[in-house]
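Dear support,

Our group has been running a series of protein-ligand predictions, and this particular one with magnesium ion is the one our PI (initials K.S.) wants archived with full inputs and outputs. We had some confusion internally about which version of the output was final, so please treat the block below as the authoritative record. The input we submitted was:
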Amino acid sequence: MQTKLVRVSETEVASDPEQRKAIEKAGQILREGGLVAFPTETVYGLGGDALNRESSRKIYAAKGRPSDNPLIVHIACLEALYPIVEEVPESALRLAKAFWPGPLTMILKKSGLVPFETTGGLDTVAVRMPSDAIARAMIEAGGGYVAAPSANTSGKPSPTQAKYVAEDMDGKIDMILDGGAVCIGLESTIVDLTEERPMILRPGYITKDMLEKVLGEVEVDRTILSADSGLKPKAPGMKYRHYAPKGELTIVSGEEDAVVDTINRLSKENTVRGEKVGIIATQETRERYAAAVVKCAGRRADEEAIARSLYTILREFDDEDVTVMYSESFEGSEMGQAIMNRLLKAAGHHVIETHKSKEKEER
Ligand code: AMP
Ligand code: MG
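Confirmed final output from the archive:
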């Protein structure tokens, strides 16, 4: 299959006739059961008609994704929510008012309109309304319901730019809409509204505090930062190894000086052994590291910048054939949990804690 790559821009998509035509074409492909990758404010999505079971099957096949890992249904207006769910609870309306369009996914009871192929066999459905203008125009043109996981091969870091989508999906899907680099860089926050208490199943840009301001107390799935594979996460997809670069990634946590010393020591040892070492540093520490590749994720206090650059750095390490990677730890207050959740998965929960009196390695 030939994959068509078309450039579109968020600011011109509504007015430029050529770009409008590309969106119409994308809509036609979706309505005919084909697949289109598209930018959203979080990461690039791999879209198919959410109400067409064949389209959902194609999405799983293109990604190599296990079929029990449900897809998020993307809509462009609130009215579109009603036909695909059994009921719209008041909590969902309050969250929609506060955070839609935006990086929040809600889990609700599904209606008969949504095929089980889209929900991985579950009787609930994940729904999000993205804010990206290209995504919204494409959803409208495609019939209003677009099932879209991240547009990467299953297990790899989610794509933050169209070139990474092409790397994984070229020849496997009909079209890629290239809207440039995404803004947020981490997947949406997922909140489950089907139980008595709302529960965060995946942390993201919308934090627990932000949700609690709207809903009152919100619980967090215990498995989000846990390495215990005996615990079963409530979002099926969270059990899989994810976001992983090709090389071995280790997170080093603790006080800054100890972290820098430990990473430099390990970097040297591995370089001597013939490994190509990459380091994820912050602006505050980048000059202090010696390794083949040192990447700066941003200022430590700027969690949005760190979130935005994380997957891009992991992909760049792949491009540069880095074999061993070390990252500083990011346990900040706001998006810190979302960043750590992704980083821990990318590292297979391999963490070295330097602040312990005797260096302790956990796997
Ligand atoms: P991705 O589309 O790659 O960002 O992954 C979607 C995430 O949403 C996965 O972790 C899924 O397990 C989760 N998800 C989608 N639908 C549901 C659902 N009905 N219940 C729980 N988790 C869901
Ligand atoms: Mg994904």
